[in-house]
Amino acid sequence: MSEELSRRKFVMSGAAIVAAGTGMRQNEALPRVAVRGVKPVVISAANGNRFKNGGKVTCVEKAFAMIAEGADVLDAVIAGVNILELDPEETSVGYGGLPNADGVVQLDASVMHGPKKRAGGVAAIEGVRTPSLVAKAVMENTDHHLLVGMGAQTFARQMGFKIEPDLNTEKSRRLWLEWKRRADPAHYLDPKSRSDAGRKATLKMVEEGLIDRDHVTGTINCNGINAKGEICGVTTTSGLAWKIPGRVGDSPILGAGLYVDGSVGAAGSTGRGEANLYGLSSFLIIECLRQGLHPKDAAIEACKRIRTNTVEKRLLDRHGNPNFDVTFYVLDAKGRHAGVSLLSGAKYAVCTENGPETLACEGLIERKPAG
Q1: Residue 365: which H helix or E strand, with range?
Q2: What's the burial of 244, exposed, middle or buried (CB within 10 Å: 0-12/13-18/19+)?
């Protein structure tokens, strides 16, 4: 048996596993994957292998199955993150995402298409559950890369998206009211006291298990590559919980929350957006890949840059390390991938012909007790 036939048999067996997870019957035609030196891979934040929105598959499973069937890679990864955007239990993305300080859900997203060398994004958009699809519409229907606020919402309406008056769920509203009760920002304390009060209230809610630590700054980035070596990526988020209205983090910003170079690879992030914006870390990672670094080593360089740039006392723990986390999800043109975080303990999701997995990220700094 030739090497090409062996590869095809290996990939086809994996496609059968994924098909079983999507409810396909064994006697149905399986997706045909023509291997040309690259094995299809989908990677994402860990929540991409957790939430199913009442269905049978997760984000990475959905995206991989579509890629195996020959779908455009960007369409596949967007369909994957749509699962989370629409899931009311996922409070860091889309519908039911934790709102801003005024109790309003504002969403950000960006997409990049490697082969077409095109991109689109939206920021602080209200009323649309799937901002990733609006970002794609910006890419396909305008000469712009980023639309924001009411302009983004108006564009979405013009493109036929349903605009809802409120994207809060009972859960997200209850959590916001609990935060507001504890922080009481309406009294407008002096800036430092108000900031400290809000942060302490948030951390206390994390300690009490009301909010998952990762959902305070939660997001999902999802990147994929097909057998032709075509790479695309998407990042979507409801942003920092209880943020100042209008705040935009790294997720919709090209080079920060997402960057794709079709000949090199894709990189995206979750975590403290301000730290990532300062160094345009995803762009840095792609440039490191261009120099020949492995995805893990390229992301480690970005984490080192963040650690070096973090000098404000309020952002440091008692050990002198950043008191926040940033995680990168990196995929290169060879299909190699890595999840790397500033602090140890993070995870990321992967789906290949072997099915979905949640793997440990490489951490730059050993996570220590807060203080």
Answers
A1: strand 362-365
A2: exposed
124 CB neighbour count, 10 Å cutoff:
24
Alpha helices in 221-365 (DSSP H): 273-279, 281-290, 295-309
Catalytic residues: 219
Q: Which two tokens stand for residue 19?
A: 């098909």
The answer to whether 360 touches 353, Cβ cutoff 8 Å, is no
CB burial of residue 269 (10 Å; 0-12, 13-18, 19+): buried
Q: How far apart are the first and last CA of the chain?
A: 60
The 10 Å Cβ neighbour count of residue 228 is 15
| 90-114 pLDDT per residue, tens | 999 999 999 999 999 999 999 999 9
SS3 (DSSP) at 140: helix
Cα gap 113→244, rounded to integer Å: 31
Average pLDDT over residues 46-74: 98
At 285, list the tokens: 């990672």
Inter-axis angle of helices 59-68 and 73-86, to 10 degrees? 160
* Helix (H) or strand (E) run with residue 207 in it: helix 191-207
Question: Model confidence over 273-300: pLDDT tens digits?
Answer: 999 999 999 999 999 999 999 999 999 9
Contacts of 168 by beta carbon, 8 Å cutoff, 6+ apart: 96, 99, 103, 105, 176
Whether pLDDT at 204 is above 70: no
Phi/psi at 94 (5° precision): 60, -140
**Contact at 8 Å (CB) between 305 and 285?**
no
pLDDT band at 182 (very low <50, low <70, confident <90, very high): confident
Q: How far apart are CA 248 and CA 107, in angstroms?
A: 9
